[in-house]
Amino acid sequence: MLFSGLEILPPDPILGVAQAFAADPSPLKVDLGIGIYRDEQGRSPVLSCVKSAELSLQQNQASKAYQSSAGNPEFNLATAELIFGANHKALTDRRAFSIQTPGGTGALRVAADFLRVRDPSTIIWLPDPTWATHQPIFAACGLATRKYPYYDAASAQLLFDEMTKALSEAQPGDIIVMHGCCQNPSGADLNEGQWRQIAALIKSIGAVPFIDLAYQGFGDGLDADAGPVRMLADSLPEMLVASSNSKNFALYRDRVGALTTVAQDRKDGQIARQHILQAIRANYSMPPDHGATIVALILGDADLRAAWEQELDVMRTRIKTMRDMLSQELTSLTGVDHGFIAGQRGLFAKLGLTPAEVAYLRQVHHIYITLSGRMNIAGLSANNVRRVAEGIAAARARAAA
Question: Counting beta carbons within 10 angstroms of the beta carbon of residue 285, is it exposed (0 to 12), middle (13 to 18) or buried (19 or more)?
Fold first, then answer.
């Protein structure tokens, strides 16, 4: 029988946390699991600029006829310009093309399908830590993966020397997946000098970087956060970028993303685009339009864009404030300097908590983070940050006893 004899699978490492949180009846529970932005009241609101764009779309959209496998052309152009800047040489030389996908995860899968057809022996290098979806996506396409060190949670250190040593073993044509600003689960980003060293290393090897850019605007601002991607496009002949608007436009359930390719010249870029579109056609045919049209409307209207950037500033500032508060509370409670939390960026932090400590936090303090110890800083508020810090301090003290 088709459905007989199947094994029960373990809960998803991220979505399973949300399910456990939902089942907890405690009024004191705190959700620091799934990586979405939350405001001070714990809500993940629809941005005002999105509501305005949706109203405009409702009043003016003339058709819901099919578009091409590439999706919304206005969205694709706006995405490329958001990543690289309108006047970047990769765009003016027509080396770079963006293609709409169902979220950043969809972009990763489309790229994996393309790479498998291009060369099934391609090796994919993944940072450690990375997201639970990365390895299964490439493995599902039959591509082999290797890990390279990135961050040690126990010491709160970015492992740059170990990273470059491991990547020096990559071969020409290997794909090196790297996290753009705020994307690594650790919350730790490479600095400008480190990015330049990585660019030189990749160039010397002849490998191709694949940047997962899901949080542009959550670090230091839209242009600053895209700086490493732009530098790589200046330095290297080819690259891939998987980007998402689910986060910076709070369009999580609309699944808005893009796969952007940068080729060595316009001809190669156009041919690669044709092959990627063929992979899309064989997969989901074409992406959903609603969220992409909303993003295109906002980025194409000066007033809506200004409103969006202001709302993005509010999100970024609140996350930074919560980082500072958690850092101060943990330092005060434990006597151990937790300044690294304040020095990192974006939604995520890894505090080196063990699975047993994570389980204790859930069972005793009703604080929900992933078993890997990765927590979502945006789930904190002025009302709960002290209690969360007390729970973490208690978990560590219990483990040390």
Answer: exposed
Counting residues of the chain whose pLDDT is more than 90, the rounded percentage is: 88
φ, ψ at 311 (rounded to 5°): -65, -35
Instruction: Check 189, 247, 289, 350 and give the catalytic one.
Output: 247
Quick check: 166 pLDDT over 90? yes
Which token pair is 264? 């060595």
Residue 112's alpha-carbon distances to 14, 124, 172, 264, 391, in angstroms, are 22, 9, 17, 20, 41
Tokens of 19: 């399910």
295-316 b/e with 16+ CB inside 10 Å = b?
Answer: bbbbbebeebeebbeebbeebb
225 and 66 Cβ atoms separated by less than 8 Å = no
Relative to beta strand 208-213, strand 175-179 is parallel
Concerning whether 212 is annotated as a catalytic residue, the answer is yes
The pTM score is 0.93
Q: Catalytic: 165?
A: no
DSSP string for residues in 34-83: S-----TTS--PPPHHHHHHHHHHHHH--------TT--HHHHHHHHHHH
CA neighbours closer than 13 Å in the CB half-sphere of residue 77? 10
**Cα distance between residue 368 and residue 362, in whole Å:** 5
Closest to 84 in 3D by CA, of 191, 216, 174, 203: 216
CA distance 125 to 272: 21
pLDDT band at 400 (very low <50, low <70, confident <90, very high): confident
Active-site residue identified among 174, 212, 225, 254: 212
Q: For the stretch 188-199, what's the b/e string if a residue is b when 16 or more beta carbons lie within 10 angstroms of its beta carbon?
A: bbbeeeebeebb
Per-residue pLDDT, averaged over 96-104, amounts to 96
Catalytic pick from 31, 113, 125, 131? 131
Q: What span, in angstroms and rounded, lies between the C-alpha atoms of 150 and 166?
A: 10
Q: What percent of the chain has pLDDT over 70?
A: 100
Our measurement of the distance from residue 164's CA atom to the centroid of its chain's CA atoms, rounded to an integer in Å, reads: 22
In this prediction, residue 249 has a pLDDT band, given cuts at 50, 70 and 90, of very high
Spatial separation of the C-alpha atoms in residues 89 and 37, rounded to whole Å: 33
